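Here is one chain, start to finish.
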Amino acid sequence: MYRQPTATRAEILEATGLNPASLSHCLKRLIDAGLVLRVGELEAKAGRPADLLRLNSEAGYFVVVDLEASPIRFAVSNLLGEIRSRWEEGDPAKAMEVSVIKRGVDMVCSPLSAQEREAVLAISICRPGLVDAEGRVTSVNLGWDRFPFGEKVREVLDKPVFVENAGRSYLLAEHWFGAAAGVRDCIFVEVGKGVGGAIFSRGEFFQGRTQAEFGHITVEPGAPDLCKCGKAGCMEAIASASNVVRQYLDRVGRPGQSVPSLTVNDVIDRARRGDPHALAVTDRAVRALGLGLSYLSAIFNPEVFVVGGYFLGSEDFLLPRLRAELAMHAREWSGSCRVVPCATGSDIGLRGAAALAFYRVLEDPDLLRRLSEPRMRLAPKTRH
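Its structure:
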């Protein structure tokens, strides 16, 4: 019921494999609790019309946080990931403190009524970086080195907290709501603060000992571009947003200078207008990405690459170049691989965090009991 707007009892019966009596008992309890709503009837060729049912999207809320976004994004979403309120926080100048997250959660919850606050089930956070066996996070973009993020953030927040790698959260959003819907083999690539993503192989997330961090694939050995990870010539050191800006400033004679108002989108706009320095920088970034994706294509042979980050809004300019670069390195025997922009837009991290929260609630007996217990429910808001 989470994955489609409405469903009949027959459709739910077929999807779940429950026997009719069990299904009837479950649905009665969920309808009585206000978690499932009757929203209409479907005429039948014979017999009684079939009830059309859907989840009550306002039966519960999540606070969702995207630490990979720039600026950092906070939102309150309903059960279906629809955003109800927002707050943005500027990127920290140094290592991010959990107090920033506490303040953002408080700010985004401030417009909620007392009843809405009571309906918040959990806080779901997508974060960049790698996590070790002890749960400590290393993220060069947030200034963390084996930082016990989960432990620290749970100390300052008064709701259950779910934390997931940003790339996996982004891919989850695209798999459920976007360009990778129904695809069993796909790779999501985020090109923003860094270059990262996640891999979906044979219908499951691929994960080795730690999460994939393919932004640190070396694509230009011997290059002078030093990455925050300490290596030179990483895909991230050439193609991330800040490094595109850095290279442009180097080329126009302002090396090492900071121009706060200049963004990666400004550089791309200048490339569109034929600025030779901007064209050289964006072409180099695309070449680095295309080569890096060709390595992933050769190993995993995905059906589709979904690309987010600063490619959004510039896909007409950048994606044809990226597709051509990938095609130049890929071999025909590997099969065709599509390269498409993400469909969930700049809210991808928030929607992914909401999807993660929904499924984590289903796995937590206490939260699931709280969600499905009878109580006064908020009225569903009209969808646009």
